[in-house]
Amino acid sequence: MMEPAFSLRRKAFMHKYFSGKVMDYQQIIGLYIPILIDQSFLVGLNLVNIAMISSSGVAAVSAVSMIDSLNIFLISVFVAVSTGGTVVVAQYKGSGNDGMVAKAAASSISLVSSFAIGISLLMILFHTPVLSLLFGTASSEVFAYAKTYLIGSSVSYVGIAIVEAVCGALRGIGKSRTSLKLSLIMNLSYVLLNVICIHFLHMGVHGLIIAVNVSRFLAAFVAVLYVVKLDTNFQMRLYDLLHVNIVMMKKILFIGLPFAAEQMFFNGGKIVTQVFIVSLGTHAMATNAIGGTLAGVLQIPAAALSLTTVTVIGQCMGGQNVKDARKFAKSFLWLASFTLLLMALILLPLFKPLVSLFHPPDDIIRELFIIVLINAIAQVPLWPISFLLPAALRAAGDSKFTSVTSMLSMWLFRVVLGYVLGIVFHMGIIGVWLAMNIEWGVRGLIFLWRFKGDQWYRHRLIEPAADTK
After folding, report:
1. d(Cα 354, Cα 444) in Å, to the nearest integer?
2. 292 alpha carbon, distance to own chain's centre
3. What is the pLDDT of residues 308-340, one digit of tens each?
């Protein structure tokens, strides 16, 4: 029986744009779908988080939003290092050097955990001066909530660090389904504990702290158990997690450190922006928090595609196949723009019921809709070249250029321009968001220029045949 013409055209299209010598479209779909589900849970978790804590009032929402922006800044350091691990694992997998895959994964877990322990201790010891420096103009009620939430969430950094490192290594070898299972253990247990502690026991911010710590350390325990006892790809022992492999760690840090510096400057810029949003008042802070959550929902498929890009391009470069790397990167850019447009068309008509989940004051709804609308329009052409394209460049080893570009554009455009538009020109939160969208465009154009050249793929991160240290 002959296949329908539409089915044949669909297969021809998929082969043309999403298949190559390194992998075909079916493998890419198999990699992408679990990551998409994972991202959906992560963003949905944030939405539920803000919506639930909103029952405790605007002050609690503002405090949680403030500390979550600081948490993202801190966690991004070891997430960046785990991305270095993902790239190295993916390139070794693409080169066919399976023996080095396990060593790269073990070194990644050790490095990321060490970074997390250090950051956690610093935040617990110096929480008061940090909060005073960043959010000193907030009301006393908001500040009290923020102090409690920062100390509690800092304890959980080690748990999420281990999970991120293991999931990154699993994505590097293409086992995104297993990565998804670990993420689901963490996120579903978090939601369940959130419902119990906040909705039923009315524990507010303290309930949030209990939920985040129990869920992250539970998932970390399962993740370590999996790589040591169950996964035959890694054949890892607990000793391997404690062993210091300097050669491998240098490779991971070659990608991870520039990305970590980028993330610190990038998210640091967000915190600076948050500081002058604080000066606009509690309602502006709530508007920013809810707007950011809704923007995250719009970006779910594109963000999942960006994570998929690291594995796909990493394996292409491990196999020294630049042609496939270029082809996949271009296809992913167009696909990301399409998903952003589709999500905007689906979710914008649902704005009112979505916003009602957060119980916002009536006087911020109009401004909230304006920033969501502007962002939804701007991100279709700008988000992929600003976020997905540097993921492709980084997976090829071009980490320094992408990091320096992101740091400079963040501070020269988003921070400075955000202050000028939002504070000097009295455009408020709308001006801050406009500056963010402009910064996306500037950064994205620079990355496009880089991608059209040949410097981005000339980095030699691994030696497939000889590298056995």
Report:
1. 30
2. 14
3. 999 999 999 988 899 999 999 999 999 999 999
